[in-house]
Amino acid sequence: MATERKKILLRLDPAVHDALARWAGDELRSTNAQIEFLLRQALAEAGRMPSSAGRMRRPGRPARADPSAADGGPAPDESED
């Protein structure tokens, strides 16, 4: 189960937001994910990354809980008798 994520309001200069959005697009991330990536990078470089911080999600869609659900076939561990 995924942990609850904090929601914050962030006010940015429009030019800074546009630059972040372009950079995020270049790296195939959302703007929000790019901001989190940069904050984590800055925390790590400053030696302030908490050891309790979870790993950042990988880019792209989350993996399906049941990969066989997409094709309607049996799950890989089920055998057809």
From TrEMBL:
It comes from the Bacteria. Residues 46-81 are annotated as: Disordered. Residues 65-81 have a biased composition (Low complexity). This is Toxin-antitoxin system HicB family antitoxin. It comes from Actinomadura fibrosa.
